[in-house]
Specification:
It is built from five helices and no strands.
């Protein structure tokens, strides 16, 4: 499954971003529901919880993809991009 995700251009950074977006969207959903009452409030609360539950899945897939990128760099374009970002983060070559 990880190889298929990588084949279609998904990488660990995108998964981590999706996890953060899920948390943000959950908070926004909760904030938007603060003025609701009754069944509408219950539905909004359930929706916010549902969205928030996606975050761990995205983070776990992000970690798995990061390990895949480091141990099996069989997709050169993504491996090169990961190597460049790692080098920039460590300050090597500046």
């Amino acid at each position: 499954m990880l190889s298929l995700l990588r084949k279609y251009g998904m990488d660990s950074d995108k998964m981590f971003g999706a996890g953060m977006a899920s948390i943000l969207f959950s908070v926004v959903s909760w904030a938007a529901s603060r003025g609701l009452q009754g069944e509408s409030l219950a539905r909004a609360d359930r929706w916010g919880i549902f969205i928030g539950e996606w975050a761990p899945t995205f983070f776990v897939l992000g970690v798995a993809l990061r390990l895949e990128e480091q141990t099996r760099p069989d997709m050169p374009e993504q491996s090169a991009r990961r190597h460049e970002s790692d080098r920039a983060a460590s300050g090597v070559g500046q």
